[in-house]
Amino acid sequence: MNYRQLGRTGLRVSELCFGTMTFGGEGMYKVIGETAQAEADRLVGVCLDEGINFFDSADTYSGGLSEQILGKALGARRKYAIVATKVRGRVGAGPNAVGLSRGHIMDSVDSSLQRLGTDYIDSYQIHGYDALSPWDETLRALDDLVRSGKVRYIGASNLAAWQLMKALGISAQEGLARFETIQSYYSIAGRDVERELCPLMESEQVGLLIWSPLAGGFLSGKFSRDQKGPEGARRASFNFPPVDEARGYAVVDALADVAKEHQVSVARVALAWLLHQRVTTSVIIGARDEAQLRDNLAAPELQLSALQLERLDQASALPAEYPGWMIELQARDRLEAISTAARFSKVS
Fold first, then answer.
1. Residues 200, 112: one domain?
2. In the structure, what pLDDT confidence band is assigned to residue 224 with cuts at 50, 70 and 90?
3. Residue-number span of the structural domain to which 340 is assigned
4. Does one domain contain both 204 and 110?
5. pLDDT, tens digit, for every residue of 254-297?
6. Among 3, 29, 61, 80, the one annotated catalytic
7. Is this structure's pTM higher than 0.90?
8. Are residues 165 and 284 in the same domain?
9. Number of domains in the chain
10. Burial 15-33 (b: 16+ CB within 10 A, else e)
11. Which residues have a Cβ under 8 Å from the Cβ of 68 and sit 6 or more positions away?
């Protein structure tokens, strides 16, 4: 297992992170997975044995049951793990049991700590934007949690680039803990983050944690032009994240060709493609059983050639949009000037 730096911090996390959305199976999460404690213990044990030190949950997953199961599964091995969880979603009745107000954050962190059976959270992430809570209130509350020791680092999830940049600016201006990571949807079938978020991440040294790297199962190898997935597949009743099927099946075809060349699964190639992207910090994988988990764990070992990466990029490339195409067009004379100057300097 390889390890990568978490944002600007000195913390190193495994390039695969084990996501626990399948733990519990309560409410709306039943369709995603119903992993009970015994199976969770086994899967977490496999992860630790294989070098994964990064685990992700949220207070809303199965009404908090996911956090509880994860905490018990780690047990005495908690000290070897980097644990991330999230706050923002609705966790109870009433107008204040949701959002990013100071009150909700302070209540939620204590509840998460209790369920996880720990006295600190390594990475506490906001689960999305809250239009009613001012950034300075949210960031001040999170900074207080860092100063108290309950939280070591903070992160964000599901933000637009302008929202993330505004939060980073306030943190810098006020001397507050800043978002070191953003957890975003990214897959070879859904590359939208490349338009605005990826350039921002590289500029500001914000780490990328990737959720749904297989596009909700669309890239699992079970879906093709001729087969719309097995009976009972999650995507059949839960089309999330949405995929443009016209483009998506072209991507699946390209993945299948590369998978055949390496004699591996389509899913493994899809994960390996993400690990080859320079913005990636860690890819969050989920598994209902050990066979699926072990196949995913083999993804870091798969080295894609430059030609294979080019083929996959061409099959999945985003259509050009403004202002991206204008920025690229106007950059050419500057970049060409640098290239020309370099050639002349070598000659002289």
1. yes
2. confident
3. 323-348
4. yes
5. 999 999 999 999 999 999 999 999 999 999 999 989 999 999 99
6. 61
7. yes
8. yes
9. 2
10. bbbbbbbbbbbeeebeebb
11. 24, 115, 116
